[in-house]
Amino acid sequence: MSIKSICCIGAGYVGGPTCAVIAYKCHDIKVTIVDLNQARIDAWNSDKLPIYEPGLEEVVMARRGKNLFFTTDVDKGIQEADLIFVSVNTPTKKSGLGAGMAADLAYIEAATRRIAQVSKSSKIVVEKSTVPCRTAQSMRTILDANCTENIRFDILSNPEFLAEGTAIKDLMNPDRVLIGALQTPEGIKAQNALVSVYNHWVPIDRCITTNLWSSELSKLAANAMLAQRISSINALSAICEATGADVDEVAYACGRDSRLGSKFLKASVGFGGSCFQKDILNLVYLSTQLNLPEVAAYWKQVVDMNEYQKKRFVQRIISTLFNTITNKKIAVLGFAFKKDTGDTRESAAITLIKDFIQEHARVAIYDPKVEHEQIMMDLTEPGVLDNRKQVEQHVQICGSAMEAADGADALIICTEWDEFKDTNLDYSQIYEKMHKPAFLFDGRLILDAPKLRGMGFKVQVIGKTE
Ligand code: NAD
Ligand code: UGA
């Protein structure tokens, strides 16, 4: 079976870039990305796309209006498609059974029901969202219950492994594409049809085919293992600070072992992003449900260590600033959860700033890509600092690092944007503008600390004493 028309439900960080790249690489396939959110669709159809990703604009502009379309007409998108990606959000549940742990599958179910309701021909339905293991079973039950004689639905799992900030690069040249299917003749036929879509640009040996449940679990497993590496190096960073070992040197020495590899061993102020914590908690919940409490406790520790790392960093800042930051000006450089993205979901900066405000500090924030209003929204979310007035009184959002540093007692690097490196920012001018002693805390290990100490800064770096 050859796919001629694809619909993607969900025009978010995954659906948008993923399907834009499919359109870019497969001119013979019509790709329609649908979403209920009118503002988001309008932005995809405008000159200012709703998300920032290096290279995304070029890809979208090259194919939009040719074989790539963005619309809120969900039903028409579904009806016209041979294959439908379900790429809706699967956040952690906020209330009810499994609150704070389990994935909220309401959006998956709503999209699946819509497919069942409006389809007039057979479809391959692909789970693109990250979901708990065996979610495809529930989707199947809903779709089967609505099947008519001449319509059949085949379900595939095709989790996405892109990282934000490098999404286009990751999609153009993926380490692997994973496609899970029921191991029936029909399931394998559907699996092959999706392999042929990717095969327009991904070599066949990078397309891994597995059963449905392995594919679903592999996505949670990959994120859990990646996050585990960060928590491991962050745990070691605490030992480094107490002993004089240098976490960069430890990471390098360990990473040179080819069995360990060098990637994902950068100590930091803590991992953020919409998925690591959510997916680990999802795995913890799944393990608990399966009556595997030891397994649940094992993975939960990865999240606990991440929380500890953020707290530890805040404590180090406060104790260095003579145990009080009341009324002091703290300049926070970076609000996004990592560089090269405007995404702030679960960013470590949010936790840090919340703690600073609760200590009655004045906080000046600068991020090159995050909008002013987004920062206010994140800081006034329920559970963060729900009092907007308090936030407005304590927070100044700045247009440059220099403005944030003006009159500051401490400068905190929260996101590793290249423009914050000492080779790109004029730290001698920053030093002139700051209160003395001028404290500098590098939560991302991007600065040449000895050089900055030479300028007069009192520098503290995660995982280092000197
Ligand atoms: P997102 O919130 O950016 O986008 C989801 C979109 O789905 C929203 O625009 C929402 O309006 C839309 N939507 C929800 N229900 C809908 C419905 N019934 N019909 C039409 N549209 C609907 O989320 P995201 O970051 O793109 O993540 C999507 C999934 O991909 C999640 O499961 C996530 O875990 C997974 N994932 C995310 C990343 C990432 O880097 N963000 C990477 C890999 C996997
Ligand atoms: C992560 C995974 O890398 C993707 O493979 C996956 O598809 C995605 O989650 C997802 O499922 O959403 P992402 O969260 O976009 O991608 O970005 P990462 O590069 O993984 O960074 C996550 C967080 O870890 C960031 O806050 C980053 O700064 C931090 N990090 C990363 C470190 O602190 N140290 C490192 O060595 C690497």
From TrEMBL:
Binding residues for substrate: 160-164, 219-223, 259, 266-272, 337-338, 444
Molecular function terms from GO: NAD binding; UDP-glucose 6-dehydrogenase activity
Record's keyword annotation contains Cell cycle: no
Record field: catalytic activity: UDP-alpha-D-glucose + 2 NAD(+) + H2O = UDP-alpha-D-glucuronate + 2 NADH + 3 H(+)
Residue ranges of coiled coil: none
This protein's record includes keyword NAD: yes
SMART domains attached to this UniProt entry: UDPG_MGDP_dh_C (SM00984)
Root EC class: oxidoreductase
Pathway: Nucleotide-sugar biosynthesis; UDP-alpha-D-glucuronate biosynthesis; UDP-alpha-D-glucuronate from UDP-alpha-D-glucose: step 1/1
Active-site residues from the entry: 275 (nucleophile)
Binding-site residues for NAD(+), renumbered to this chain: 10-15, 35, 40, 88-92, 129-130, 164, 275-278, 345
Keyword set, alphabetical order: NAD, Oxidoreductase
GO cellular component, one term: nucleus
Its EC number(s): 1.1.1.22
Domain UDP-glucose/GDP-mannose dehydrogenase C-terminal, chain residue ranges per copy: 331-449
GO biological process: glycosaminoglycan biosynthetic process
PANTHER family cross-referenced by the UniProt entry: UDP-GLUCOSE 6-DEHYDROGENASE, UDP-GLUCOSE DEHYDROGENASE/UDP-MANNAC DEHYDROGENASE
Family note: Belongs to the UDP-glucose/GDP-mannose dehydrogenase family.
Name used for this protein in its record: UDP-glucose 6-dehydrogenase
Species annotation: Umbelopsis ramanniana AG
